[in-house]
Specification:
Blueprint (H helix, E strand, L loop, with lengths): L1 H13 L12 E5 L5 E6 L8 H12 L7 E4 L13 H8 L3 E4 L11 H8 L3 E4 L3 H7 L1 H9 L3 E9 L3 E4 L10 H13 L2 E5 H7 L15 E5 L18 E5 L4 H9 L2 E5 L9 H10 L4 E4 L3 H9 L5 E7 L6 E3 L15 E9 L2 E8 L6
Parallel strand pairs: 3-4, 4-5, 6-12, 6-13, 8-9, 8-12, 9-10, 10-11
Antiparallel strand pairs: 1-2, 1-3, 7-14, 13-16, 15-16
Helix pairs in contact: 3-4
Amino acid sequence: MTLDIMGSSLSHASEALWLSNPNPRVGCVITSSDGHLLARGHTQKAGGPHAEVMALRDAEALGHSVVGATAYVTLEPCSHQGRTGPCCDALIAAGIKKVVAAIADPNPRVSGQGFDRLRAAGVEVIVGPGAHESRELNIGFFSRMIRQTPWVRMKIAASLDGKTALENGVSQWITSAPSRADGHAWRARACAVLTGIGTVLEDNPRLDVRLVDTPRQPHLVIVDSRLQTPLDAHLFIAGRALFIYAASRNDEKKSALEALGATVIYLPGTEGKVDLAAMLQDLARREVNELHVEAGEKLNASLVREDLVDEFLVYLAPKIIGKGREMAGFGPLTDLAHALPLNFLSTERVGPDLRILARIEGRDTF
């Protein structure tokens, strides 16, 4: 029964997928001592109530007492004062007598302390059911807390022979409308979308979420070494944070871009390029959990070459293009042993296309 109820809590946690960033996606189900459902909830947008408080409010609205009840929560109840108060204190005050948690919170301000406070108050605590599923749902949050970098997911739309565009750059549309909508759903779950100045200059994209309904727009990140971003680009969207990383100083252009709402950060690396590893660390400090990359073959190649990508989200269309632009133009390798080893996490049909989610071997062992 515990696994079934935790499965329900995980389902509620998934309702926060596009909502709770940068907070983790958490679900909570409260049952009576004999297993009857009393309440449920999930984390709201940042600054709003967490899953436990939402479930307690649900119980109150339904007229259910939770004294002596059990709370099944997909992440350790928080123990610190952040944007909201400690959830462990709310559970204790409500009279909850048992907490079943999927996994400890990786946030050093919480990790283990929520469980300790619950136990000190006489609450029984069980940890473990649903741990893998909860961690996967919050892989970006775990990455930011443990590695101090976002979880980097590179999205690629290509033909069956791995071409993302014709040699002349035309790419609209290799994959189908269902794949494009699905890709927007993956954009929506990310804290930020990343692209390079080449894509900006060539396509003038918006890179927002349009094809699915979403309560929030992810931030946009541009790698623009020489600050070439046009002031009339489609990127400037009200209410969305825009971060532009540059290597060469141009304070006049910086001021003009920031007047339009962008934040320009100088992070020079080698050969006049942006220090990409330092950029990821900076984005983590800006509370970016999942970074969704939609870039061209050159920036893709740099990210792969520097070992900064964690997994690939690839849509393959049932088409053969022949000569064209590559997924990531690195190499050539001199030995197959140097190829990037991947594990396929899932393969699914999306319309006429094939969607592959592939993770670099061992990348999720932090």
